[in-house]
Give the backbone structure.
Amino acid sequence: MGAFLFAGLLSANLQAACEVDRYDETATLEKIYDGDTIRLTDGRKVRFIAINTPELAYKDRPAQALAVEASQSLKQMFQTSKRVHLLYGVDRKDRYKRLLAHVFTEQGKNVAAELIQQGLGFAILVSPNDGLHECYFAQEQLAIKRKKGIWAHMDYQPRQANELTREMTGFQRIEGRVEKIGHGKKWLWLDLAPLFSVKVLRKNLKYFEDQPIELLVGKRIRVRGWTAYYNGKLRMSLSHPAMMELMD
């Protein structure tokens, strides 16, 4: 079997694994904001579960690399039909009151899985919305292997924790060695550098049973998520081990 044919069959099998046999709702698409957010005709906004795509230009902030391509790819998926199937997460809304859902075309194609496979977005997992996550991360591995999109672009290489500056907020992949772990009433803190810490809610420690947080001291890890600067540090929340890789 030729390499390209095999890759095509593998891709088709992975896409099939990202499909479902039921939906919570079917609606109509009105507007595409970017690669991972849409608006329905009734005015509700939907943020896709499991993916983060590059940001389009906003005010004085320039577009990130491949942001336009992600948005265009999404538009193409809904070119023939604006019907949208939604499968909601356990948490149905985010802090911006957007619906959180797995989104499918009228034909049943998983939109986030397709974008991830094209290398136009990162697979993410924010607990408790962990449905289909194994499929999404498998799609990402396929994109990495093929060096598609973000996986071949210098802008999306991991940053080193000890080289961060306070301006490096937003979605990041950051690599460093866990220097120490701090304990709070609700959180555990993993210090990777003087300027950078990862925080894990105690209620989410149940997801880390196979990789206990306490055993990470001295280990080199790579984490992904959103950073914010406050109290003199860049901080990232981590709610599931799928967002962390052991590097040694």
Observations:
- DSSP finds four helices and 15 strands in the chain.
